[in-house]
Amino acid sequence: MVNMTLHLLTPPFFQLVPLVLLAFIVLRTLLKAIPSSRKAAVAASPPGNTGLPLIGETLAFLAAYNSSRGVYDFVRIRHLRYGRCFKTSILGCTHVFVSSTEVAKTLLGSESPDFTKRYIRSIAELLGHQSLLCSSHEQHKFIRRHISSTFKLEAMDSTIKKFDELVVDTLRSWEKMEQILVLRDALKVTFNAICKMLISIEDEHELEILRNDIFEVSEAMLAFPLKLPGTRFYRALKARERIMNRLRKMIDLRKRELECHEDFLQDLLKKDESCNNDSLTDEQIMDNILTLIIAGQVTTASSIAWMVKYLDENQEILEKLRALYLELPCKDSASPFGFEVLNLMPYAIKIVKESLRMASIVSWFPRVALKDCEIEGFKIRKGWIVNVNARSVHYDPMAYDEPFKFNPSRFDEDSKPYSFMAFGIGGRICMGMNLAKAMMLVFLHRLITTYRYKVIEADTSLQKGAMFPMLRNGCPIAVTPVTKEPN
Ligand code: HEM
C-alpha cells in the first residue's frame, strides 16, 4: 500500500496530471453541449416544470385557454423550451406532451395495451361518463360497435344531402349582405344537419334552444371544474341537464310509439328492443348523442372557416380550384350532393386535407398510462397522461416540407406514415371523418361556384375559452356572385 502511494508521487504520474485535467474539461464541455432533453433521458423523467404542489401549471394552462392565442399556446411554448417530449402538471395530473410519429404509431396506431384514452375530469362530467370519448377500453369497444353500425352510409348520405340544401339556402341569403361571418353560418348548418341525422329536430325554435345549450357545454370543456353558481362550468352542467331532459323525453315518446323517425336515435332504440342485454342503455344513448353533436359541429364548422381563410390567402390555388369546378357538369340545388362528393374531385380533397393539417383542430390526443413504461427514452409513471402532440407533428419540417406554406399539392404523394393525424389514428379514429370531409367538400363546392369572396379582416386571433382553435373574428367575408365579375 505504502509502495503504491509512493508510486503515485513518482514523476510519470505528475506528467499525466495535465492530460487528466484536459480530459475532464473536454468531457464537461461535451456534456454541456448535449441538448437538455437528452440529459433528462439520463435523469429518466421527461424535462419540464410540474409547478407548485397540486396546482402545478394549471394557472398558466387556464391563462392560455382564456387568451386569444388559444390553449395550444401553453403546449407550444413548452415544446420550444424543452423539446419534443416534456412534462407538466394540470388540474392535479401529470401530463406528458410528445411530438413524434413513432409514439403516435405506438400509442394510437397499435392501440398499446399500456395506455387508454382519458380526457380530463371536467370533460367526462360534461359529456357524461358513458361518452365514447371518455370511456374505458372495453366499454369503448362495446359502444363504438353499436354506434358505428347505425352510423351507416345511407344515413350519412341523406345527412350530406340535407347539409347541401342548408348550404344552398344559406348562400342564397348572402347575396344582399355586405359582410358574412363564415364561422357563424357554418356552425349553424353543421349543427342543423347533425341534429337532423341524430334526432330529427328541424323546428328552428327547438334547434336554437338546443344550440345554445350545446354551446354552453362545449365552451366549458376545458374550464376550471368549479361547481359554483355563476361559473362557466356550473352553467354548462345546467345546460347538460336540460339537454338530457330533452333527450329523455324524446326516448320516452318513441318507446311509447307516440313518435317515430328515421334517424340514429330510432336505430339505437330498435336494437334495444331486439337484442336486450347487448344493447345500449338510455344513458349511453343520451351521452353519446351529446358527444356526437359536440364532436361533430364545432370541429367541422371551424375547419370550414379556416379553409375559407387559407384559400383567400392563396388566390392562385383558389383560381385553379374554381377553374376545375367549372369544368364539372353544373350541379343544381334540385339534386343535392350525396356521398359521391367524396370522389368528385381529387384536388378539392387535397385542399380539405391541407386545411385540416394546418388548422389541426384537435391539437393533441390524450392517453393515460396504465403502468410504468418508457416513451422516447423517458420514464412514464402509471397514471400519467401522455398527449400525442398532433399539431407539432403537422408542422414538423421532417414530416412536411415548408410546413407553414398552404400547399395542397403536397398530398400528390403519400405523407410520411403517422404524420397526418387530423382525424386521429387507430381504434379511436374519428367516427365522423367521412361525414366531416364531405361537409367541407360540399361547402367548398357551393361557395366557389356561387361567389367570389374576399376575407375582410385577416386577424388570426383565436376565440378565448374555446376547446378547438376557432377564428375569433368568425372569418368575415364579402361576396360577389360569380356571374357578376367585380369591376
Ligand atoms: C373536421 C371535423 C372533425 C375533426 C377535425 C375531428 C377530429 C377527431 C379526432 C382527432 C378524433 C380522435 C381523438 C383521439 O384519438 O383522441 C375524433 C374522434 C371522434 N370524432 Fe371527430 N372530428 C371531426 C368531425 C366529426 C364529426 C362530424 C363527428 C360526428 C358527427 C365526429 C365524431 C367523433 C367521435 C364520436 C369520436 C370518438 C371516436 C372514438 O373515441 O372511438 N367527428 N375526431
Account of the 3D structure:
The chain has 487 residues and is an alpha+beta fold. The chain has a single domain (34-481), classed as Cytochrome p450. It contains 18 helices and 11 strands. It has helices spanning 2-8, 11-33, 36-43, 58-65, 72-82, 101-109, 121-127, 137-150, 153-174, 182-199, 204-219, 232-255, 264-274, 282-313, 315-327, 346-359, 390-394, 433-450, and strands at residues 48-49, 85-90, 93-98, 115-117, 180-181, 364-369, 373-375, 378-380, 385-389, 451-455, 476-481. The strands form 3 sheets. It has a 6-stranded mixed sheet with strand order 1-2-3-9-6-4, with helices on both faces. Helix 9 runs antiparallel to helix 10, helix 10 (182-199) packs antiparallel against helix 14 and helix 14 packs parallel to helix 18. The protein is globular and about 65 Å long. The N and C termini lie far apart (101 Å). The structure holds protoporphyrin IX containing FE (HEM). Protoporphyrin IX containing FE (HEM) is lined by residues 117, 132-133, 144, 194, 291-292, 295-296, 299-300, 303, 356, 361-362, 365, 422-424, 428, 430-432, 435-436. Protoporphyrin IX containing FE is lined by residues 117, 132-133, 144, 194, 291-292, 295-296, 299-300, 303, 356, 361-362, 365, 422-424, 428, 430-432, 435-436. Pfam families: p450.
